[in-house]
């Protein structure tokens, strides 16, 4: 499905149609404020999907802006189907320059809609196109074309809760698939924006930040230059495990399960208490009720995810001068900030920076105000600065 719409600045929120296609009844006649409340209640609003405090004042009062929203499934070479979205904006002539393309990688166990919520309006307002996708095995993406929403050994849905079983691949194969998926989406997004050879930035959230770092560390310089990837923004990056637990210990525990399903929260990828995501307690309640949330995964998938975290942790030694900005809450117990501080120190690079937010938790883009706005301001400042670097 793809859509375009023309909107005047005060009604810019009308541009975000269909962020969430769950079974809730669409809310009609919504104001921006009502829709923000609907979002936190887990309701579907097909008219407006942007929180009022993030939309108000982003676009000039007299501007007419064209928002293009593309949403469809991208089929990978192995048959996997990735749910893909892209947003870009056309401004009046000479009013705003196109600055680049931001590709968002969401956190483990959730889906891309949750990560895009407050990011898309701000990024569009500053001249960036935005792309996102549901990571393989999450949200509305599948592992095979016949594996989504059916009774198959690859994917099962039970009573509205997502449970996934991968097909026995070695965890290294799974990691290679994730890396390949990122590149597939980057190439697709580049082809979808009208500007030629755009600057590309990866924006990772939680586990998605580890994925972005692992992908960049594994990428050949030739490919990075071809895709024009100019930097990574890592929000609440998961680069380590909880205190006194080693990667080796987790691998040993997961090996005992084989391909059995386990609750992902037990193995440090997603918080077992939803209030640890944000000080805005509505976020935890929303995620708890989300039908697309991954409840259980087999041990092999979790082992691959932990391996990605370890790979990202070790990438500091060979990171080089790739621009990398960490954004981290000081009360983030899902992703220890100490691991991020150690990564930054080991790189020894002035291109690696760390922005810390006092008392903020894991999902900075869903934090309470003013911290959420401070984070978004810092993120945009970093993106705009590195867009200008030749």
TrEMBL record:
Domain Serine aminopeptidase S33, residue spans: 97-367
InterPro entries: AB_hydrolase_fold (IPR029058), Hydrolase_4 (IPR022742), MAG_DAG_Lipase (IPR051044)
Pfam families: Hydrolase_4
Protein name: Serine aminopeptidase S33 domain-containing protein
Organism: Rhodosorus marinus
